[in-house]
Design a protein that fits this description.
The chain has helices at 27-34, 70-82, 173-184, 222-234, 278-283; strands spanning 2-8, 11-17, 45-49, 54-59, 65-66, 92-95, 100-108, 114-122, 142-147, 150-158, 162-167, 194-202, 205-212, 216-218, 241-247, 250-256, 261-275. By secondary structure, the chain is an alpha+beta fold. It has 2 domains: 2-115 and 269-283, Diaminopimelate Epimerase, Chain A, domain 1, CATH 3.10.310.10; 127-267, Diaminopimelate Epimerase, Chain A, domain 1 (Roll), CATH 3.10.310. An 8-stranded mixed β-barrel has the order 1-2-3-4-6-7-8-17. A hairpin with a 2-residue loop joins strand 15 (241-247) and strand 16.
Length: 284
């Protein structure tokens, strides 16, 4: 099984063309591939289809499927560019399981990275859009009980995948590690949620910590950066336009219109290509 490995600001994915898969990609096989000690090791698997346009399936390291990933899409864009399937500043569509996004490779950067723009769509703030059972309407600072006397003031947003934003005055690792996983798996979210703890720095920048559904803490997340920016604009904490998002893995730019249409601009690159040995693929 041939594969490529890439990352977007430290969030890494394995890319496999569907025709290179020797079997159906089950959840157990995704977990085996993503295992950092016994497998290839990654934050997820991207299955690419290029025969009739471009399509992408995105799998979390726990074997579940994700609806969308800003980093995964940019890594896929870098993979397409490296194979000559797209050219610089050429718009192209990518079909996902819930919607289609438009994107382009804009610039070659130092060290083989590429600056890639992705139009992620319009943010939706209704609880129903993310499967938030307590409130189907717009969710703003809803007091969510987390057990053991813990609560969180949650704000929901969908970019065709579910997000929960919690604003804090200061980002604390101890607080994040205690509350974020509880929010992610709270029964209030019928299918779980991605979680962002967010601090507004000024009118044009925020910093975030990210706990992804099916993956846990990640160094960066394009859709999380976009979701956090959209909620910050919607709440009036930052201005529409370009928002600089600082993450542990680096910075991304998120463009948020007054109507909260969201565009992500950030680097991604393919780091290496490899082959899984037949005897290993056989036991998977």
């Amino acid at each position: 099984m041939r594969f490529s490995k890439g990352h977007g600001l430290g969030n890494d994915y394995i890319v496999i063309e569907r025709g290179e898969l020797p079997w159906e990609l089950s959840g157990a096989r995704v977990r085996a591939i993503c295992d950092r000690h016994h497998g290839v090791g990654s934050d997820g698997v991207l299955v690419a289809e290029v025969a009739e346009g471009f399509a992408l399936r995105i799998y979390n390291p726990d074997g579940s499927e994700a609806e969308k990933s800003g980093n995964g899409l940019r890594i896929f864009g870098a993979w397409l560019y490296g194979r000559g399937l797209v050219t610089l500043n050429e718009w192209f569509d990518v079909r996902l399981i819930r919607d289609t996004v438009r994107m382009r490779v804009e610039q070659e950067l130092e060290g083989g990275a590429l600056l890639i723009r992705v139009e992620l769509g319009r943010a939706v703030f209704d609880g129903a859009a993310v499967g938030f059972a307590p409130e189907p309407g717009v969710v703003r600072d809803y007091p969510l009980e987390l057990g053991d006397g813990l609560t969180a003031q949650v704000n929901t947003v969908s970019l065709s995948n579910p997000h929960c934003v919690v604003f804090v005055d200061e980002l604390s690792r101890a607080d994040f590690e205690t509350r974020a996983p509880r929010i992610c798996t709270s029964p209030a979210f019928v299918a779980g949620t991605n979680v962002q703890f967010v601090r507004a720095i000024d009118r044009h920048s925020i910093e975030i910590m990210i706990w992804e559904r099916g993956a846990g803490e990640t160094l960066a997340s394009g859709s999380s950066a976009s979701a956090a920016s959209a909620v910050a604009v919607n709440r009036g904490l930052v201005d529409p336009g370009e928002v600089v998002v600082r993450m542990p893995g680096g910075e991304a730019i998120v463009e948020v219109s007054p109507e909260t249409d969201v565009v992500l601009v950030a680097p991604a690159q393919i780091v290496f290509d490899g082959v899984v040995r037949p005897e290993v693929a056989h036991i998977w």
